[in-house]
Amino acid sequence: MSVKFKNVGHIYSPDSPFEYVALHDVNLELPLHKMVAIVGNTGSGKSTLVQHLNALLKPTSGEVHINDRIIVADEKPRNLKSLRKVVGLVFQFPEYQLFEETILRDIAFGPKNFGISEEEAEARARMAIKQVGLDESYLMRSPFDLSGGQKRRVAIAGILAMDPEIIVLDEPTAGLDPQGAKQMMQLFADLKNKHNKTIYIVTHDMEHVLNYCDEVVVMKDGRMIHQSNVEDFFAEGELLNDLHIAPPAIIKVKQMLKERGFKLSKANDFDTLVKDIVKEVRK
Q1: What pLDDT is stored for residue 99 in this prediction?
Q2: 3-247 falls under which CATH superfamily?
Q3: Res. 280 pLDDT band, cuts 50 70 90
Q4: Are 129 and 135 a contacting pair, CB within 8 Å?
């Protein structure tokens, strides 16, 4: 059971004036039952990469392995319906996933499409809407009357209602206020910790990466250039500078202290940092 990219390349609009190479020879193995952040600048290939996970995009070259399935370039994927039951993807723009007359029908659509009874699908919709921080009164509203942040919550609820093993999220907290973003990230953490889900999240928010994620994959110019645990990622000061990534506040403080000769542990929580500072000052 694993998720692997083997020599994966992807070209948009090949053999046309609009040809664009989005992925170059990507080799990558993603762990299961972890929360993995996929980061990089705009245009680095993050969204293209994750859309291969449920065959919304097919590789132009190479292979994508999802558990016991292999998606090969130039071969039509088989049993896509069952693959998309295993891998649920929330788009960067939630409008792409909302199309029904009511939010209830929108959230229930996925489960019904996978053979769940209408009664069970609606029960799942009622549970999922609460999971994303909205009450049941929203269910009879049109999804097109919502704010951007509310649309994002509904799009996430639609994926949660299908109960996939792997949940892929492209900028899931964009458009949410800080408290809403924190609640959403805690929901994803609970899905991993309490329900053994696998979470792959494309994000620009380094505070979320530090506080919630287990591993980090860095994309640049369509290539995977770094993969490590979170602690090692934030220890790579040159990499962060090269990518123009602003580190979280605690990492900035640690970098400043190290430049002044402080010897600090790898842990990135404030309690440990305070203990390290006290220890160094006493020396």
Answers
A1: 87
A2: P-loop containing nucleotide triphosphate hydrolases (3.40.50.300)
A3: confident
A4: yes
